[in-house]
Amino acid sequence: MDKVRVGIIGMGRMGLTHYSIINTHPAVEMTAIADTQSMMLNMMKKYLPSVKMFDDYKDLLKSGLVDAVIVCTPSVMHYDVCKMACENGINVFCEKPFTTSPAQAKELADMFEKKGLVNQVGYVYRFDAVFGKVKEMLGKQLIGKVVHTNVQFLSSTISKIQPEKGWRSKRENGGGATYEMGSHVIDLMEFFFGKPQKIVGTMMNQVYSEAVEDIADAQLVYEGGMSANIHVNWSDYTYRKPMLKLDIHGSKGKIQADLYGYKVFLREENVEEGLPEGWTSVPMNMIPDPCPFYVRGTSFTKQLYEFADAILEKRKSNGCAFREAVDTQNVIHYIFEH
Amino acid sequence: MEKLDKVILGDNQFFGINHRSQEKAEEMLKRFGNIDNIFEVYDNAFECGVKAVMLNSNEKAVAICDRFRAQKSKYGDVAWYPSIPYAYKYANMVNELGIFPAVNEVLFKGNTAGGVLGMIGKGTMAVMTKDAMRMMEMLIDVEYKMFRDLNVKVFFLQNIITDLMLGYGVKEVFEHFVEYIRKKYKVTPGFVTLNLPYLKNKLEEWGIDDVVICSSINAAGFNMHPSKEEYERVIATNDPSKYQLMAMNVLASGSITVQQSFDYINSLNIQSVVFGASSKGHIKSTIEAIKLKD
């Protein structure tokens, strides 16, 4: 394949961003947009004459105009949209959280694998330069056997009593701290360490929301005995900007990382990697992070280009596959149910 | 095109923007929560010979502009390089409300610039979306208001919006922005971008020139996309009579020394530098290090 024809379903904030990014990929041709707001479609139609507008995503999927779609609808619709895309032989990039039930997530993973279609979920922190570096260090076993990980994601997203009608107060639309933020850190853990063996404890709490949780905690155990604490809080008003930070404690050292950089502590010098005994600190602006087209950071671009490249090169995507997102969905629902 | 000031004092330090440390950012935010401390920096900079400032249209900018206007005799000669919009405000509103309700809110409701209703008369979103260019003009007018009666030289579109729109590749948006700024405000239009090679290529393709391009340019290659090499190639072959280039983020958020930074910047075909600093010593040493060609 030398060209991928791409459509976007759902032109909210993420849909608008994804269009801008993927449209710059030299081998991508944007052919279709679906949205339920006629105002949006009218405006787009005028300035994007070569893109066909649909007010129903089903018509887009049946149009024969796309090889791939980017799904940015409310989460509760993801299952129906992805399923129909699969039935029509269309590759899918689906925004997070993947679905609203583990059974649906598994069914989609099975379907897409059977058809051999490229499938990817928008767990974007896998493409962050700092966390990519953490993954690389873990792969090289720089800190020996990992014993414990502590990961936190804190923000002031919800800092007052919520109106009931907002999308964030509905879990089926991806609301709640677990879907909004917990899903990202659970996926990062999947990225670093694979599937957890068991979940030993969970908690949820509320600060301002009524229908969903503002705080969530989970304790997990991984193969080899590593334990992990996950803590998310989207009502921490002391954070002006969201902060994702983690501590990984190993037998030979420790890694601390957040969105601003990483620090690594080694008990002994590592000559091969040029790292001394003790702390080495690397701020994010020192990590090379070239990207073909920058919009709202580099990660969204690297994520979507990987999706398009996987289709062009007829291979699996290196992003979060549907199969991996099933594991994340299982952990999320365990938290909800216990 | 009127020549740019070679040295411009930016505003990142005032708004708690630090790419390296959240803690440092918070510290600056606290210090510059008091506007007197902001003006202390400005006064120091002017004393050191700075004659121009760049300011994004965020919430604090209104009070800053008011004070500049109120002391015309003292600040009347300062050249202005404002940028719009304050993208975070829009991002949050779009996230909460959806794009059209957010635009509606800015234009008709909680609008701090004031008086918009009188400016545009009656209009509904449905009508407005049929004329997206008119909607853009109205959004520009709302943001421009805070810079009224200041000596504006270049009026910039901030990078989040420039780059988001650039990805869509719609010529009319850029053409209309440039024409509107020239016609209504009689100043030079500018674009801030983190994709300078891509933007310049598109502007040439669309026949849009006589504009300023401001972009992250530094020896470390930080936030230069797709690559430092591509930036160098584009900068070396640029014709400044068509596109004057302004470097920002020249210190790569402190990952390189001032000396390293300016050895690099001074060797390039760049017309202007915008920098952020908050102590008199830093301001002075930065100005002394800037020795652009021509």
Task: Tell me what you see in this structure.
The complex is a heterodimer of chains A (338) and B (294). Chain A is an alpha/beta fold and 338 residues long. Chain A has 2 domains: 4-123 and 299-320, 3-Layer(aba) Sandwich (Rossmann fold), CATH 3.40.50.720; 126-291 and 324-337, Dihydrodipicolinate Reductase, domain 2. Chain A has helices at 13-22, 38-47, 57-62, 78-87, 102-115, 129-139, 177-193, 299-312, 322-337; strands at residues 4-9, 28-34, 52-54, 68-71, 91-94, 119-121, 146-154, 198-205, 215-221, 227-233, 243-250, 253-258, 261-266, 278-283. Chain A has an 8-stranded mixed β-sheet with strand order 8-9-10-7-11-12-13-14, covered by helices on one side. The radius of gyration of chain A is 20 Å and the shape is globular. In chain B, strand 6, helix 13 (228-236) and strand 7 (243-248) form a beta-alpha-beta unit. Chain B has helices at residues 22-31, 35-47, 59-70, 72-75, 87-97, 99-108, 116-120, 125-129, 132-144, 159-168, 171-185, 196-205, 228-236, 258-266, 280-289; strands at residues 7-9, 52-56, 79-84, 154-157, 188-193, 211-216, 243-248, 272-275. In chain B, strands 1-8-7-6-5-4-3-2 form an 8-stranded parallel β-sheet. Chain B is 50% helix and 14% strand. Chain B has 15 helices and 8 strands. With 294 residues, chain B is of the alpha/beta class. The interface between A and B is large, with 37 and 45 residues.
Mean pLDDT of chain A: 94
Strand order of the largest sheet of chain B: 1-8-7-6-5-4-3-2
Rg of chain A, alpha carbons:
20 Å
CATH architectural category of the largest domain in chain A: 2-Layer Sandwich
**Biggest β-sheet of chain A: count, sense, barrel?**
8 strands, mixed
Number of strands of chain A: 14
Please compute the radius of gyration of chain B using only Cα atoms.
19 Å
β-sheet strand percentage of chain A: 15-25%
CATH level 3 topology of the largest domain in chain A:
Dihydrodipicolinate Reductase, domain 2
The residue fraction in helices of chain B comes out at 40-55%
Mean pLDDT of chain B: 88
User: Can you tell me the CATH superfamily of chain B?
Assistant: NADP-dependent oxidoreductase domain
Spans where pLDDT lies below 50 across 5 or more residues of chain B: 111-123
